[in-house]
Write a sequence for this structure.
């Protein structure tokens, strides 16, 4: 008898390094836990605007801490994020809207590519330290992904359908009181929703699911 | 031959529930890891001011999240934190400087009572919904932990020496990049040092120390 799977919605924005770490963690854990993982690209500035929250890097000490925290998280999770000193200036002034709309379009028209597409943006921003904010950046990343529906996806970035998907995902996160990313929502058997913020709550997620916490599961990194 | 132990310094303020969790976690791990744990009461208000940071509860969704997060942490760590009914009013309107001075005074006059006094203050505000701001509150604390010389501690609380200790602890935390509490500084026997924010980095502290992280270690819980 197979355990009934718990639906997990992972709300993320590629501007967030912690969202990437949590994304990788969930891809690994979805192979060990009885969960049905749904990736939900949303728009972080929309969350900030509605909640009155601000990006952590607005606070210089948090920005400095992020650098060291990412190094330690890299060692623990086997990830490869590289903090760079221009990140703060870049992200406080720029927007990930095109990237997020691109991911929404991929979700609509070529959903089996959502994982590599998301990862491609994070790699570009958080390993290669390149811009992910301009339409040109999106086109370049799209080209490297070799999408079957590339033309349709790129043509839809300003469509109502794509805009509404981002808005709907953002509103759904807000309805569960999200104030940042990564934002994970578990829908339990009785329909109750349990929300978790950040990439450092997997042991508490394990507790809620009544499953073991296996640590970083680095051995599963290659499979996903 | 005794090996030099790693030093773990915990900077905390009793206004912070997560500081209590980290305090309990470190006290348990000090029983199984070869570390020297030093408790460093500081003043969160000064840290916030220095970093330009604000209490998480200034964002209402974070306040909502925190209450549920504490419940999950209670289950995980075997604790019983409960927000006082007027938590927002307290967190945003009152100052814990006197409570923190009492801790610094106990650290000076009766250091063997620092752990218990810290715990008793937390139990008052974050378990029983009792006051930690008035003279009578501190008298009750002194009685509960059986201070040998409460009068000496109360007098010391007003002394410049104690104010200086709090300032020095704040300064040390700020120098190592603190923007909040709990703030844990781990110094290896080699002299290498790392700082950790929050109560959800024990697995990374374990990694840094190269010791195993074995979860909540409930068998080493202090009596609440």
């Amino acid at each position: 008898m197979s355990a009934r799977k718990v639906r997990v919605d992972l709300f993320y924005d590629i501007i967030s390094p912690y969202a990437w770490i949590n994304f990788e963690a969930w891809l690994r854990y979805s192979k060990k836990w009885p969960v049905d993982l749904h990736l939900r690209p949303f728009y972080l500035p929309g969350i900030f605007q509605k909640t009155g929250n601000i990006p952590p890097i607005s606070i210089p000490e948090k920005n400095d801490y992020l650098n060291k925290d990412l190094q330690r998280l890299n060692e623990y999770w086997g990830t490869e994020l590289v903090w760079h000193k221009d990140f703060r200036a870049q992200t406080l002034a720029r927007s990930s809207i095109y990237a997020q709309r691109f991911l929404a379009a991929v979700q609509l028209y070529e959903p089996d590519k959502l994982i590599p597409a998301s990862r491609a943006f994070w790699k570009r921003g958080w390993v290669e330290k390149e811009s992910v904010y301009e339409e040109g950046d999106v086109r370049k990343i799209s080209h490297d992904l070799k999408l079957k529906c590339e033309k349709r996806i790129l043509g839809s970035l300003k469509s109502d359908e794509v805009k509404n998907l981002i808005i709907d995902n953002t509103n759904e996160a807000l309805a569960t009181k999200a104030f940042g990313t990564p934002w994970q929502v578990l829908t339990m058997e009785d329909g109750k929703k349990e929300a978790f913020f950040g990439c450092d709550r997997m042991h508490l997620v394990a507790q809620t699911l009544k499953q073991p916490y296996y640590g970083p599961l680095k051995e599963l990194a290659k499979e996903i | 031959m005794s090996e030099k132990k790693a030093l773990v310094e915990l900077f905390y303020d009793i206004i912070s529930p997560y500081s209590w969790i980290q305090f309990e976690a470190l006290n348990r791990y000090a029983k199984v890891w070869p570390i020297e744990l030093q408790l460093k009461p500081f003043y969160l208000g000064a840290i916030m001011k220095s970093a330009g940071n604000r209490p998480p509860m200034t964002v209402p969704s974070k306040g909502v999240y925190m209450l549920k997060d504490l419940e999950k942490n209670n289950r995980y760590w075997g604790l019983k934190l409960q927000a006082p009914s007027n938590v927002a009013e307290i967190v945003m309107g009152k100052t814990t400087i006197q409570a923190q001075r009492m801790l610094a005074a106990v650290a000076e006059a009766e250091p063997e009572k620092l752990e218990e006094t810290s715990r008793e203050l937390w139990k008052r505000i974050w378990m029983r919904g009792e006051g930690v701001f008035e003279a009578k509150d501190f008298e009750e604390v002194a009685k509960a932990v059986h201070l040998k010389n409460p009068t000496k501690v109360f007098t010391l609380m007003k002394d410049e020496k104690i104010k200086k200790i709090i300032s020095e602890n704040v300064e040390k935390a700020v120098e190592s990049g603190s923007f909040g509490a709990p703030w844990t500084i781990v110094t290896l026997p080699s002299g290498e040092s790392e700082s950790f924010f929050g109560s959800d980095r024990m697995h990374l502290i374990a990694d840094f120390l190269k010791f195993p992280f074995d979860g909540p270690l409930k068998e080493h819980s202090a009596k609440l």
In short: The first strand of chain A starts at residue 6 and ends at 12. Residues 6-223 of chain A form a domain with the Glutaredoxin fold (CATH 3.40.30.10). The two ends of chain A are 26 Å apart (CA to CA). The longest helix of chain A spans residues 60-77.
